[in-house]
Specification:
rod-shaped; about 60 residues; two-stranded antiparallel ribbon; mainly beta
Amino acid sequence: MSPQLVLGLGLNVNTLDSTQNYGNPYGSQANFNSDNRKSASFGLNIGIERHIKGTKRLSP
């Protein structure tokens, strides 16, 4: 926009795919379970940054 005012844009994509196996194979009532999980998330970030004159490292 200008040397003092900057627009920013960010994109985030995250996926998760996991399998967990658990159970008790011993005894008269043996059991075994499997837990499958899948997920996806998407994010979009926008922001404005203002550069203040006289400061090199300060950009609120």
